[in-house]
Amino acid sequence: MCLNNSPDLITLAVYEPQFICICNVLSMAEKLRAFIAISLPEHVLQAIANAQETLKRGGLKIRWVRKQGIHLTLKFLGDIDRDSVEKISEAMERATGSFSPFTLWAEGIGVFPDLRRPRVAWVGVSGEVEVLSSLQRDLESQLSRLGFPKEKRGFRGHLTLGRVKGRLDQTKLREGLDSLSDFRTESFTAQSIVLFQSDLRPDGAVYSRLAEAPL
Fold first, then answer.
1. Any catalytic annotation for residue 43?
2. CB 3.0 to 4.6 Å from 72: which of 17, 38, 192, 198, for a disulfide?
């Protein structure tokens, strides 16, 4: 029997067997919005949050990503079945199996695609970026075996600061970016990759760890 808080639905499940099947299908088909990323330590997140505050003072129309929502995303999976989490976790472990922990830091701030048509404000990633790119390629390869299509665009490791909501004052944007031209955080060690669930809510997304594969 499928448990449900509705007395009517429970009664139907008891007296009408076909509802049991429908309920089971719904349970099995539960979808999770998920992505795979490298978590950032608190000191890096705080430095990025401070940079956000600098840009906010310019009154730019940007929907800022909350500090706890900033990750180094390696692969966005979209909606997945809960039953697929174990297979994805195994693919992650196969991808990380030949890697050791490596060093990165956040450095540089800019916008995609350019200053004339900004859509996303970002922070760059420096350090052992060749290792990072290699890890991402191996992860893509493993996930493609599970039916997840490979990205057509080349991987560019970055951290999303915010998304532009409308037209921006280019002068204020340039001034804000210039004031952060020497932005760089302390280094950190990437030690694992994490499968996150993203639960979208009116007050912002809530992230939960579903699986983790060590380097």
1. no
2. 38
